[in-house]
Amino acid sequence: MSCLFWSDGYLCPFKKLVLQALNADIGTIYGGSVRVRVCGICVHEGRILLVNQALYGPNGVFWSPPGGGVYFGETAEHALVREFREETGLDVVVGDLLFVNEHIAEPLHAVELFFEIKSFEGTLMSGFDPELAADGQIIREVRFLSWEEITTFKPEQRHRILNMAGSLAGIFELNKYISGN
């Protein structure tokens, strides 16, 4: 592949340098296969819940909605409840499927199912990823951000859906399927 699809469209090989900084565990665990992920759009008091992951954004900053992989035999809804508990400490009620995003950026390929989070309870905290070693954790921070706060980050530091949406309300108006190419 000569160009990579990035959050704001097609960008060429210099973006491969960013991906080369990908956490080695992530590439080893999830690289080279298609992964089904679930993600939750949780809005509270005009702010959206996001996780800052030291994955592959500039300076190790990458903000995205909470979520993660679906295990064999696990429903998407159950996986999302589990991922929210692991990453944020919150217990959630999953709502409707909003859209599907296909993420393709070597070595990763994920099909992401985005659901609305109808409600939550618990105490917000920065969680962990049980698939990663203690010294290889990528979650740096979890918090509710206003749209104004989100726009202070570079496009490469935000999940592509945040760049495509253009506003908090725009997230709920995205196409039902967002192609990875």
Please give the structural blueprint.
Elements: E1 4-6, E2 9-11, H1 16-20, H2 24-30, E3 34-41, E4 43-44, E5 47-53, E6 63-64, E7 67-69, H3 76-88, E8 91-105, E9 108-121, E10 139-145, H4 147-150, H5 160-165, H6 168-171, E11 177-178
Parallel strand pairs: 3-9, 8-11
Antiparallel strand pairs: 1-2, 3-7, 4-5, 5-6, 5-10, 8-9
Detailed description of the structure:
With 181 residues, the protein is an alpha+beta fold. Helices cover 22% and strands 36% of the residues. It has 6 helices and 11 strands. The protein has helices spanning 16-20, 24-30, 76-88, 147-150, 160-165, 168-171; strands at residues 4-6, 9-11, 34-41, 43-44, 47-53, 63-64, 67-69, 91-105, 108-121, 139-145, 177-178. The strands form 3 sheets. Strands 7-3-9-8-11 form a 5-stranded mixed β-sheet, covered by helices on one side. Strands 4, 5, 6 and 10 form a 4-stranded antiparallel β-sheet that branches. Strands 1-2 form a two-stranded antiparallel ribbon. Strand 1 (4-6) and strand 2 form a beta hairpin. The longest helix is centred in the middle third of the chain and has 13 residues, at 76-88. The radius of gyration is 15 Å and the shape is globular. Mean pLDDT is 83; it is low at 1-23.
